[in-house]
Amino acid sequence: MFESLQLLWIEPPGRGLSLLSGLLSTMQIAIGAYALGLTIGLLGALGKIHGPAPLRWLLTTYTTLIRAVPELVLILLLYYAGTAALNNGLESLGFDPIDISGLVAGIIVLGFVQGAYSTEVIRAAMLAVPRGQTEAALAYGMSRSQSIYRILIPAMIPFALPGLANLWLIVTKDTALLAVVGFFELASATKTAAGSTRNYLLFYAAAAVIYLCVTLISNAVFRRVEARYRRGQAMA
Amino acid sequence: MDWSWLPEYSDKLISGFWLTIQLLVICSTLGFLLSVPIGLVQVTGPRWLAAIARGFCTTIRGTPLLIQLWLIYYGVGELFPSIEGIRESFLWPVLRAAFPYAIVAFTLSVAGYVGEVMRGAFAGVPKGELEAARSMGMSPFKILYRIWLPRAVQNVFPTLAGEVVLTLKATPLAATITIYELFGRSTEVRQDTFLVYEPLLLVAGIYVLLTGIIVVIFGWLENRIPKPSVA
User: Fold this and answer.
1) Is residue B168 within 8 Å of residue B211, measured between CB atoms?
2) Domain-embedded: residue B10
3) Which end of chain A is less enclosed by CB atoms within 10 A, N or C?
4) Contacts of A139 (CB under 8 A, 6+ apart)
5) Could you tell me the residue ranges of all domains in chain A?
6) Which pTM was predicted?
7) Does B89 reside within a domain?
8) How far is A220 from A147, CA to CA, in rounded Å?
9) Mean pLDDT over residues B117-134, rounded?
């Protein structure tokens, strides 16, 4: 058992370096997908609350379908459909088809899935902001967009934070699913290392510990952010 | 769109569908049964037991299910063959199959997530109701199954429906450990026929339908149980 622990070390024959670079990809994909998801979520929430009926209907279909289909199926569908659509588009414009890197594809696919969940979280948070606050902003002569980014968005953040923290934890864990499609990240790095050294228990346990550390650190960070944003707010 | 493969593969897809249902029902049920003590000890148990339960929930919720599944199937599964004489024992056929490992992994996952829900649910039952039950002379066990558990479940019933949907959406992971449930079958069809989208779209549609059915069933059950009183 103890000599096999050396396999986790950075220097060869240890596989530590490969796990660390896997963790780096995982974090890059997670951060990118989370940011993309938040952007979609913010626009989606505004569209769901203020948009015209066809847009609302479209967004409802998007959030309902995405949340009802397993992430693994979505990843496969979006990955193949996305790359095929892109290359078809490029071809029809006379360009050569391109190979999308695993990193970018992972970010776009997971971001699109995250967007559906973010939309719901942010929409609920926006509806939790008392109407009077945006009405007051309009009464002061602010334009519609000013009242959104000066009043509505800052005021909804405390309501959205618990849900958004949860979504961050979900996206870090969902990156592992990309291993099934063959992208390089922590889970696939672990799978390779475990398979080639035949130390499955050791490597999967190590990966679990790494993911757990990411979760625990994220929890601590979000607690501080939440405490900061809840200053001056009446406790429920 | 080419659907000509459908009649040929319908038997396989149906068997995959039932395997998905089996995974869902078995793991949701066992996971819920396990989550009751996990939630309960965090509210009322001795401190060391509460700490273990809390650690379990944090670990399950803090690591990807895929890693848990692989850890149990490849990692723990790797230990068994080294045990002397196990290949001859009656347990070997069970230990060699993939299905039991999936059941264990998904059950523990459900227990971790629902355990956290049940902790909040048990803590949310007004103290006065439990004191009233005790003053009526009920034994601790009777208080649990007559008052505390029903009131707790009543309060978190919609959340439990959500957890069942999450479990359904986790079942495709079983395909990564050679279990041919619905998603695994669609992968098989895709490899045989070289079709990219059709099999995936079909199973995606079935998952949406199943999610809808779960929501309807739980909504119906929710209407049949009395509404929680507003505190």
Assistant:
1) yes
2) yes
3) C
4) none
5) 2-229
6) 0.90
7) yes
8) 32
9) 94
Q: Pick from A23, A69, A109 the residue to mutate for testing the B interface (most B CBs within 10 Å).
A: A69
CA distance A158 to A73: 33
B72 to chain A, closest Cα gap in Å: 8
Instruction: Determine what percent of chain B is predicted with pLDDT higher than 70.
Output: 98
Average pLDDT on B93-102 reads 87
Question: Could you tell me the two tokens for B115?
Answer: 């355990």
ipTM for this model: 0.89
Note down the domain range covering B22.
6-224
Sign of CA dihedral A7, A9, A10, A13: negative
Residue B90 lies in a domain: yes
Does the A2-229 domain belong in CATH 1.20.1200.10?
A: no
In a domain, B1, yes or no: no
Q: Which CATH number goes with the domain that contains B28?
A: 1.10.3720.10
- What are the average pLDDT values for consecutive 10-residue runs of chain A, which has 236 residues? 66 79 94 97 94 94 94 90 81 79 87 96 94 93 91 92 94 93 90 88 93 96 90 63
The residues, ordered by sequence, that sit 6+ positions from A160 with a Cβ below 8 Å of its Cβ are: A121, A122, A124, A125
Residues of A in contact with B172 (CB under 8 A): 70, 72-73
User: And the tokens for A106?
Assistant: 């992972």
Cα(A7)–Cα(B129) distance, integer angstroms: 56
Nearest CA in chain B to A70: B169
Nearest CA of chain A to the CA of B217: how many Å?
Answer: 15
8 Å CB contact of B207 and A68: yes
* Complete DSSP assignment for A149-205: IIIIHHHHHHHHHHHHHHHHHHHHHHGGGGGTTT--SHHHHHHHHHHHHT-HHHHHH
Are B74 and A69 in contact (CB < 8 Å)?
Answer: no
Asked if residue A42 lies in contact with residue A126, where contact means CB atoms within 8 angstroms, the answer is: no
Say how many domains are in chain B. 1
